[in-house]
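Why does residue order matter? Because the sequence determines the fold. Keep that principle in mind as you read this record.
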Amino acid sequence: MNYPNGIKKREELKNDVKISHKNRGMTLEYELNITNEYYREIDKAYIYKKPTPIKIVKVDYPSRDKTVIKEAYFTIPSTTDYNGLYHGKYIDFEAKETQSRTSFAITNIHPHQIEHLKNINRHEGIAFLIIRFTMLGETYLLTISKFLEYLEKTNKKSIPIDFFREEAYLIRDGYRPRVDYLKIVDELMGGKK
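Structure:
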């Protein structure tokens, strides 16, 4: 049966689209954005994705609705991905995904980001990393203090998955919220809810 407007039946769609388990679901950034939106909707926390600071140099205006940025550059290095407030505490974190099944490359976190998170922690804010091992379907919250301990104890260029499994907090996938990292933050804050 042919549907109006050329819409294909479900069976036909399955044959057209290659299903890949490595790209299933949404990206971590998207999932964190909808999680944070949910937290705001229920008035639990106010955490936002920080925009990347850029300076626009050249713009093409063929018409008002077709404006195109032709040239832009980063003005200053961005600090981290997310920040906000939860129970009167400042939260700041960086989120990264890796395709590796065995480790997370430390070079994925820039030195200025590490310094920024270190300063947030020093001033009693809540600072951490959220790392997703995409191929394993595992997402972890790693506190900045555990991350810094690892850096001090080793000169390796990556953090093995076993370190995350032993020293970080596994974030279980959910529906609403999708990536409930505040459940772990509650634990870190001593059980506050």
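The beta strands are 46-49, 54-60, 68-74, 82-86, 89-98, 103-105, 126-133, 138-143, 158-160, 169-171.
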